[in-house]
From TrEMBL:
SMART domains: MIF4G. GO terms for molecular function: mRNA binding; RNA cap binding. The keyword Heme does not apply. Keywords: mRNA capping, mRNA processing, mRNA splicing, Nucleus, RNA-mediated gene silencing. The keyword rRNA processing does not apply. One of its GO terms (cellular component) is nuclear cap binding complex. The lineage of its organism: Eukaryota, Metazoa, Ecdysozoa, Arthropoda, Hexapoda. GO terms for biological process: 7-methylguanosine mRNA capping; mRNA export from nucleus; nuclear-transcribed mRNA catabolic process, nonsense-mediated decay; primary miRNA processing; RNA splicing. Component of the nuclear cap-binding complex (CBC), a heterodimer composed of Cbp80 and Cbp20 that interacts with m7GpppG-capped RNA. Gene3D superfamilies: 1.25.40.180. It comes from Anopheles epiroticus. This is Nuclear cap-binding protein subunit 1. It is found in: Nucleus.
């Protein structure tokens, strides 16, 4: 009897444990499903983005009771890890805030904590994307304009601190300026005097700022045909142009406009007062750079026009392309596919923008962000993915670089040699060398013939000498490297005498 009762008790125990396992597995499956739905919103779908957002918000609202913390974490991570979908997630949060005010308040607190933690941990890109998302929540009536302006003012206050590195002050101003394209129109319509005051403070800062680093970071020693602007000066010129256009731009998707009637009735939250963490000697800040320019609208064929150097669209496109390279650099095929799938690609000469951004990364001073071969492999994959356009654009870019090589920085010259030789080795060393015949009239140490000589020397490592003798035009014979031969010192003239001396020394 006792045994049977013990057996029955054990059976209840194991049955209860199996139920718990099923509940855990069901919860994990549900969490993974929610995460997949949130991550993939806005991607290829047969239905419209608006209907997808409405359906997803309904699902999330019904699951808030069981997966509240999970939903908060995913929604705060997505706009930082996928900044190109910032407005999609802000619309989602806006719709949820309109239905559930308490959730909206919790999310704002969570996002503010993420922003402050990113600043403390020196995760500068994450902090900038978090600031951008907080600003975009103003457009969705989740956050009040007054509290956002208070936050932006505190960022500018940090830029005016004394006895701190200039790179710290520069980053805070850059973070504010790079956020304004998302929220500038809303601030202009509701708080124009406060916005003007913020811009005046930034202008005063920029006028006092030193730029001793500018010359050291230039790719070319001359500004013709494209000026080499320091990054903050260039962004400030783009923001001023945006201001002249009444803060209207044509690149940022804004899905929340379709839900304006719902969002405008929602209650708003205030961002608590945020004081940026004080500078510490262990903090490392992003270094300044010079904005790289290779093309303008005259270089592009008839069709979509390349945005001007001081248009905000140029900044937004370049920033988006840089973030794609950063995210997908480990897989060249995925990187090439995502670059060619840039939104609004029908409105811009996309191939020219991509090539310019990749060369900007390659020629970044003092060193590129990633290995040089990373950019070379991405360009090769782009040529394979789009053989009808990309090789022609890349050939045009190579021609432009070769024509301007006289004033190119020495480090960039070496990177140009490395990339071009690597690229030729992947396309059977085919190139229209006859177009560069004019360089044969110059001295061998002139940058143009020197470039060809260095390229052939590098290419020799990927092939053999006789091939270049047959492939290159006759006039280039003087630039072809000497045939490689073994250096056997014992067969050279006078080798026997040196051997006798060594033997005598050994005997002594």
């Amino acid at each position: 009897m006792n045994r049977r009762r013990a057996y029955e008790d054990d059976g209840d125990f194991y049955g209860e444990r199996n139920k718990k396992r099923r509940r855990v597995s069901e919860n994990q499956e549900m969490e993974e499903r929610l995460e997949t739905l949130i991550l993939r919103v806005g991607e290829n779908s047969t239905s419209s983005l608006e209907s997808n957002l409405e359906g997803l918000v309904s699902v999330l609202e019904s699951d808030l009771g069981n997966f509240r913390s999970k939903i908060l974490r995913i929604l705060s991570d997505c706009p930082i890890k996928m900044p190109e979908k910032c407005t999609i997630y802000s619309t989602m949060v806006g719709l949820m805030n309109a239905k559930n005010y308490n959730f909206g308040g919790e999310f704002v607190e969570y996002m503010v904590k993420t922003f402050k933690d990113s600043l403390k941990q020196c995760q500068w890109d994450a902090a900038r994307y978090a600031l951008r998302f907080l600003a975009d929540l103003v457009n969705c009536h989740v956050i009040s304009t007054n509290s956002l302006l208070q936050l932006l003012d505190s960022m500018v206050d940090a830029a005016n601190e004394d006895n701190v590195p200039q790179v710290r002050r520069d980053w805070y101003v850059f973070a504010v300026l790079s956020t304004l394209p998302w929220v500038g129109r809303e601030l202009y319509e509701k708080k124009e005097p406060a916005l003007d005051n913020l811009l005046v403070r930034i202008e005063v800062f920029l006028n006092k700022r030193t730029k001793k680093h500018h010359n050291a970071l230039r790719v070319w020693s001359v500004d013709a045909p494209h000026p080499q602007e320091e990054y903050l000066d260039c962004l400030w010129a783009q923001i001023r142009k945006l201001r002249q256009d009444n803060w209207t731009e044509k690149h940022i998707p804004r899905p929340y406009l379709a839900f304006d009637s719902v969002l405008c009735e929602a209650l708003q939250h205030n961002i608590p007062v945020i004081h940026p963490p004080p500078h510490q000697d262990s903090f490392e800040y992003p270094m300044p750079w010079v904005v790289y320019r290779m093309f303008d609208y005259t270089d592009c064929p008839p069709g979509p026009i390349l945005p001007g150097a001081h248009s905000i669209e140029r900044f937004l496109i370049e920033e988006h392309l840089h973030s794609i390279i950063e995210m997908h650099r480990w897989e060249r095929k995925d990187c090439a596919i995502h670059l060619l799938m840039l939104p609004y690609k029908e409105k811009i000469p996309l191939e020219y923008c991509i090539v310019e951004v990749i060369f900007a990364e390659l020629f970044h001073m003092p060193t590129p962000r990633y290995l040089e071969i990373c950019y070379g492999s991405i360009l090769i994959e782009l040529c394979k993915q789009q053989p009808s356009k990309m090789p022609q654009v890349l050939a045009q870019a190579t021609e432009i670089l070769f024509m301007r090589i006289d004033s190119m920085n020495t480090s960039c010259f070496d990177r140009f040699v490395n990339w071009f030789s690597y690229h030729l080795s992947n396309f059977q060393f085919r190139w229209s060398w006859d177009d560069w015949d004019s360089c044969l009239l110059l001295e061998n140490e002139h940058p143009r013939p020197k470039f060809i000589q260095e390229v052939l020397l590098k290419c020799l490592r990927f092939s053999y000498h006789d091939r270049f003798k047959e492939m290159m035009p006759e006039g280039y014979a003087k630039l072809i490297p000497k045939p490689p031969a073994p250096h056997y010192k014992y067969s050279m003239e006078g080798a026997g005498k040196s051997t006798e001396k060594n033997t005598q020394c050994c005997t002594l």
